[in-house]
Amino acid sequence: MSGDIPDRPALRDNTVLPDNAVPLDDPVLPDDPEDADPGLASERTALAWTRSSLAFAAVGVAIAKARPAIGIPVLAFSPVVLLLGHLPRARCRPGGHSAAWDSPGNPRAPMAQNAPQDGTRARSRRALLMVTGITMLAVAALVITLAGSGASGIRLR
Amino acid sequence: MTVRDEKGRTAVSGAARRIETGRAARRAEPEGTEPDARFTMANERTFLAWSRTSLALVVAGLAVAQLLPPFRGVPWGRSAIAAPLILLGATLSVLSYAEWTRNQRALRLGEPLARSVLPRILSVTITVIALLAGAVDLYSKVHRG
Fold first, then answer.
1. pTM for the whole thing?
2. Which residues of B touch A45 (CB under 8 A)?
């Protein structure tokens, strides 16, 4: 049967594939869909930044109810974290060099070639800002904890 | 920072030269090549997960110090449990950044990733804090009895 249509791809058991079938070893369509589009990884990363932002918001609201002087700065840091995760996303997206992404079959490959090549320093700054925020919160929490152990100490409630 | 010698010539001091060299190194392009975006993002997500863990530890320490009723006979009990939690949160946050930097460098250079010490630090410290909390609670109950 496969001999009738020689230009169609055939499986080992000589089953003829339909016209729109693509061979599994085609480099344009890898096994993992993420290989075809690193945008999925980018989306997961953006969601991770969103979760981190929500964590800051939740902590900020909880503290701000009792002690606005500490809670409001923490709450204000939440949209900053959200922006950190979402603003550079479009720049980061085509930055990688996976074989599938750069393949001629990828319609976005020209965009990848023209994209900025290096976001390492920007990512480093974002990470450093995050660490600074958490460390400052930890220092404030430590001061509250140690100063609040006595009867006249700082109490959040 | 320039210094002028007895003949009026100016020269850059050693400290200034070191500062300038450091700045130039920071300005220079990072070594290696840009890795696959998926690896970079996975590294970033791991860092963010550790950051959220750090935040949770700081908040847990704050909650212990502020919301827990005082231990009878152990006035320092809440602080003794809360302070290590907060310190652990701050330490993990800083270490996670160091690890992110190290992993990013390894990715750029195509080197194998080093084994993370953060899970060990987290599990050991939480175990110690849990034992401490149990001991304080027991002591408080014995003291009350």
1. 0.70
2. 41, 44-45, 48
